[in-house]
Amino acid sequence: MAATVRRQRPRRLACWAMLAVLLADLLPLSETLAVMSVDLGSESMKVAIVKPGVPMEIVLNKESRRKTPVTVTLKENERFFGDSAASMAIKNPKATLRYFQHLLGKQEGNPHVALYGARFPEHELGFDPQRQTVHFQISPQLQFSPEEVLGMVLNYSRSLAEDFAEQPIKDAVITVPAFFNQAERRAVLQAARMAGLKVLQLINDNTATALSYGVFRRKDINTTAQNVMFYDMGSGSTVCTIVTYQTVKTKEAGMQPQLQIRGVGFDRTLGGLEMELRLREHLARLFNEQRKGQRAKDVRENPRAMAKLLREANRLKTVLSANADHMAQIEGLMDDVDFKAKVTRAEFEELCADLFERVPGPVQQALQSAEMNLDEIEQVILVGGATRVPKVQEVLLKAVGKEELGKNVNADEAAAMGAVYQAAALSKAFKVKPFVVRDAVIYPILVEFTREVEEEPGVRSLKHNKRVLFSRMGPYPQRKVITFNRYNHDFNFHINYGDLGFLGPEDLRVFGSQNLTTVKLKGVGESFKKYPDYESKGIKAHFNLDESGVLSLIKVESVFETLVEDSPEEESTLTKLGNTISSLFGGGTTPDAKENGTDSVQEEEESPAEGSKDEPGEQAELKEEAEAPVEDTSQPPPTEPKEDAAPEEEKAAEKEKEEKSEAQKPSEKKEAGSEPVPPAPEEEKKQKPARKQRMVEEIGVELMVLDLPDLPEDELARSAQKLQDLTLRDLEKQEREKAANSLEAFIFETQDKLYQPEYQEVSTEEQREEISGRLSAASTWLEDEGFGATTVMLKEKLTELRKLCHGLFFRVEERKKWPERLSALDNLLNHSSMFLKGARLIPEMDQIFTEVEMTTLEKVINETWAWKNATMAEQAKLPATEKPVLLSKDIEAKMMALDREVQYLLNKAKFAKPRPRPKDKNGTRAEPPLNASDQAEKVIPPPGETEDAKPISEPEKETRSEPTDAEPLELGGPGAAEPEQKEPPTGQKPTLKNDEL
């Protein structure tokens, strides 16, 4: 029996260990609870966080603003972000980078690269020799790629969020324009990796806005579809989105609201920036005209002057949205010449006339992609700062044919709020109300491959095949599987964009390469040699278009099947073992689709190009991967392969074949001259139909990225280290500035304190002169040599001055603390003395404190009184300029010692129980005997007598001789009734009840 128990203990310990590991995985850590979102706009960004107690809050930056410019100033020894960098754009425009997101994923020769150079000629652009991507050449030794600059901005946004949340943050959802292609999305993800951020999702900004709109109107969504159009014109681009809201039934949570992106239209260059550039050019022309006869240089050749004009153009655009005209004025625009000119709204609208004509374009694109008309749109909602321009609203209202435009969302913060809601939903630390989001694919993706076909006997030719992998406006995230049925050797296939005819010629040039990846498969022929007796089910390529809209090839595998028959004994054993293991984990056998991690995986077989004919068996077929669950294993032929049940159709077909064969067997045997022998009952019982066994062999994959090669891991690590070094340098710079400011503040504050009465009272003239001289010397050193001093030198200088002034500050602080500390000590002494006096007045029978305890308290009280009187007398003899002997810390120590003794007795009385009273012969409880202290106290006289009838000096025996129901005076109140108590166990000390104190 003991041996059995010993054997069971390790099993129990193992079970508890496994449970602990599972709980550790499921329970999120408190320091990683907060998540953030970054609405990354062209001109500015908004950051939002979610943490326990702070639901969906916009982060304030260091200037207490809710919107932060996406601007970075990069100098040799320092960096500036946000508003500080925006102000540096006037002083150092070459080192100040703005609108660099327009260069993400762009290569040399892209029209957007040339456009950026024309807009901001002060920047020197270089190109990577391997990837042909752009980088900023700040100086001969300083260059940064757009991904690195974006990584700096993301790291800065995280620092703002962490300061606001007061805890570290690593998880984020980042918004990107809906028109970003694969190369641009991968560039954003690489920038986040450089910053050390874990991206939960890249969410399209139009989807984030739609989610924010739906979350706050959850009750208005029902089973009836509601079509809403969001028109978002920001600083750099314009996106129009048609969204359908309705409740749908989900497997996990029943009926839940859902948003589905139905149509999207966009214009990459239509936005507020282009309007500001038109205004800047107009102001530059006016300034040149004002100085035409002065032989002055063109203002366009001065980067600082153009930066000033762009800032003024931004202000003008905002003011003209509410006023018919405004005066543009810049002090000292160039060569100390001021600029002043009047600009009207009519002039502004004339400058941007062609831009306003492009406003309806995204609306028409969205309607076409959604296959809808304007009558089906219930509401048009404005989003983005540029929609505040009156002419934009006028043209848009005419284009959509509505009575009014919706302005019931926060045009600046809606995307950030929607993204942070999605971040909370994706994080394991929060539980939010479900809101189903079905985003849409903007650019279709297809698979192309070529193989040999035999059209005529002896004549072989190459045939090009296409298969649409993800169609335009199809939902994502989604997984798909494509099966190549007619290959038994290594081959290649290509992943490209599909039909992009909806893009204009200029958009196609900006789009970049339409070829994504070439996939080379290795090991196909070897897999066929390994399973010569198996039937090939094709080469399956598994694709995933994840939540961020990024395409990836998960794996490629060669699948084979065969029919096997198992003995009943072996099958029974395996079945029992499998059922036992499955029951332990709450599951059983699952279809292949479940084994692949999703039930939405779709499988497609290879098909010929559209419009071409092919032999039977090669037609396109779309089906669920879990349609025919069979045995699946990725190892070489095992001794005990896994089993899956065959489909019902196959079982029925096999059963029908068996019946036909059984019907034919008797006739055949009769013809042979023999009678059929019926099987034995046991053998018939053991017969089972053959099952399918699937063998899976992993195929080697070599990818060749064609649109934009990703950064190699070593270069990505170097970029991340570069950003980390810059961050450490910034932190060191901040620490040095903090030390210098602390030293300067200490010098000024101390020089001022030397002339205050409270400091003069506790110091001599010689002491003040010495301190003043040292402070003046330190101030001179800080002005002359402080700029080159290190952080350590500044801290040492501050420590030296603090040590010099320590005695003076100590004497002043002690004198400030004396009144409060001494008053508290007196109150504690008085209350302690009263408590001790009351404790000694408790009758002996009800006494809960021992004589030692009361004597100890009395001793502490007396010692504290004596120490206070002696120390105050000694302090009175000392001059104020000497170190005091009456110290606040000593007063606090005495108070703690006295309070500790009192609290001990109070806690004892709090949990004490009353002693039982002994009863006399008549059954009446006897009065407790009085001690010496009781002689001076009154007692309650028996009924019928007054208090005056019995003086307190009379013997107590006369008072207690008669039976009476009156009780002696207790601390709980005169005459308080005491319940009858049982005798306590032997050795147990009776105590008072809490309510009798």
Annotate the secondary structure layout.
Layout: H1 2-26, E1 35-40, E2 44-51, E3 54-58, E4 68-69, E5 71-74, E6 79-81, H2 82-91, E7 96-98, H3 111-119, E8 125-127, E9 134-139, E10 142-144, H4 146-165, E11 171-176, H5 182-195, E12 198-204, H6 205-215, E13 226-233, E14 238-250, E15 254-267, H7 272-290, H8 303-320, E16 325-334, E17 337-344, H9 345-351, H10 353-357, H11 361-370, E18 379-383, H12 390-400, H13 414-426, E19 436-440, E20 445-456, E21 459-470, E22 475-476, E23 478-484, E24 492-497, H14 505-511, E25 515-522, H15 524-530, E26 535-545, E27 551-564, H16 568-584, H17 592-595, E28 602-605, E29 622-624, H18 648-671, H19 681-686, E30 691-698, E31 700-705, H20 713-753, H21 757-761, H22 765-785, H23 791-840, H24 851-877, H25 888-910, H26 956-960
Parallel strand pairs: 1-11, 11-12, 13-18, 15-19, 23-28
Antiparallel strand pairs: 1-2, 2-3, 2-4, 5-6, 5-7, 8-9, 9-10, 13-14, 14-15, 16-17, 19-22, 20-21, 20-24, 23-26, 24-25, 25-31, 26-27, 27-30, 28-29
Helix pairs in contact: 4-5, 5-20, 6-13, 7-8, 20-22, 20-23, 22-23, 23-24, 23-25, 24-25
